[in-house]
Structure to design on (127 residues):
């Protein structure tokens, strides 16, 4: 019985994650400027920032109705190659992502802040 429950749990988790594999999400920043998030295989993601004209190589995981995204910010040459890590937590609802928290890695510790969900959502799924 325990094996059956464990198997069902694993199937549900994998099915939920696979529903988002190769999905594409957009966030309009300004007229003619759209950020794009692409969820790829093996927990990898590309996050394109149109204002910086830069693509961040991210990692992600999905647990139930929540997307956890970690983004290394290596886009600023003036930082002398220093990489700053950010993480975001999104609630997935009706083909939309609502950011509910964000954080930054500072001196080896995550500093998180809660965010009030926006309506309309931050990101909308287009694929």
């Amino acid at each position: 019985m325990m094996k059956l429950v464990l198997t069902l749990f694993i199937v549900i988790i994998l099915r939920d994650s696979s529903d988002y594999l190769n999905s594409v999400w957009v966030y309009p920043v300004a007229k003619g400027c759209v950020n794009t998030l692409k969820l790829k295989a093996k927990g990898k993601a590309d996050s394109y920032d149109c204002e910086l004209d830069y693509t961040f190589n991210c990692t992600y995981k999905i647990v139930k109705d929540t997307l956890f995204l970690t983004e290394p910010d290596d886009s600023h040459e003036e930082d002398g190659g220093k990489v700053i890590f950010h993480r975001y937590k999104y609630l997935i609802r009706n083909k939309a992502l609502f950011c509910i928290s964000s954080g930054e890695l500072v001196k080896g510790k995550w500093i998180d802040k809660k965010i009030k969900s926006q309506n309309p959502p931050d990101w909308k799924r287009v694929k």
Summary: Residues 94 and 125 are 9 Å apart (CA to CA). The helical segments are 2-18. The chain is about 15% helix and 55% strand. The mean pLDDT is 84.
